[in-house]
Amino acid sequence: MLDPRLYREEVDKIRHGLERRGAKVDLDAMVNIDIEKRKINVRLDQLKSERNTATENIAKLKRTGQDAQADIEKTRTLGDEIKAQQEKFDDLESRFKALALLVPNLPHASVPDGRSSADNKVVKEWGQKPAAASAKPKHHLDVGKELSLFDFERGAKITGSGFPIYTGLGARLERAMLNFFLDFHVANHGFTEVSPPYVVNRASMIGTGQLPKFEEDMYHCDADDLYLIPTAEVPVTNMHGNEVLDAATLPISYAAYSACFRREAGSWGKDTRGFLRLHQFNKVEMVMFSDPAKSYEAHEYLRACAETLLQKLGLHYRVLELCAGDLGFGAAKCYDLEVFAPAEERWLEVSSVSNFEDFQARRANIRTKIDGKMQFIHTLNGSGLATPRVLVALLESHQTAEGGLRIPEVLQPYMGGLTEIKPKKK
After folding, report:
1. pTM over 0.85
2. Has 8 been annotated as catalytic?
3. Phi/psi at 42 (5° precision)
4. What are the pLDDT digits (tens) for 270-282?
5. Fewest beta carbons less than 10 Å away: which of 165, 173, 324, 353?
6. Is 63 noted as a catalytic residue in this protein?
């Protein structure tokens, strides 16, 4: 949520930011509502002052034995008008907040201009495209089937498409990645590990910006009005909702594993083969709470944390700086990390690292006091990492000539020392 003062003091800044995003918001309606709210607020102050004066006069008249009936009637009339004006104010406040929750964050000045993903800027590329073990590397679905690593058909049978089952060494390989990600963040990046709930209430979804705008993408439990989380960002960020954090403890950094649930409404037919788009997947999320003056340093640090994991896995990747038109709803600035999948012959996003500035903190009411001044903290998060597309890149990049899969060295301790998954002998 944007600072409400911007709507009256810097509306042109909002308008410019929304234009950069290509976002359509009825900004004039919000400005007019804010103007009307302030008029009513002035009128309420006047009415309350008049009532206070009348109340004081009633007390004086009664002390001297004089008739106070006229002032008593006046206070009743004023009270009725105050109630009516307060109801108008509350209605306008509710309408303003409902609109404000649909306004995206403003892009940071350093974010490049652009309208779509085609305008994103490649700022780094690491490693080399892997040399294939054969003329053309096998598709990850073929490798997985031959090595019995997962089962999409039975997953679809018990739930539906987009819910794969990991089997045998495939299940162990995914668990190895998750354990490696968590352990590395804790041991080398100073993160505190947390294990959050996988369902949250409506207030938590509003706090991180998923609601109300993206409700159709969420799995909702009607009976309890709870939501399956689309990412651990939601419960972890809301851990500090309605709190005042000690500035001396900032930045606070968490790493959390969770399953993630996304309906992906409106995405039917888009990248639906294999692991490219799932309704349930596993991910380790990094979440940071930062001093506002230092959040862009923290942003670069989070990005480096995610990059290090890809380097340790020996995967060829690149970093994109997202343009204004491709930013996520709540992000002021975002980097996407993409790995190269040789058989897919394309780049696959495996992490988005975002700085939300105070956008989420305003919604969730997370503050700190710096130099005696209370202010909203800045929140940041990034995937560190999501496993499905990383697995795709591993399967397509680390194939052996015999049809097996080389296990990256950093995962071998989690695989019982196994260095290679070999095909079964026929």
Report:
1. yes
2. no
3. -60, -45
4. 556 678 889 999 9
5. 165
6. no
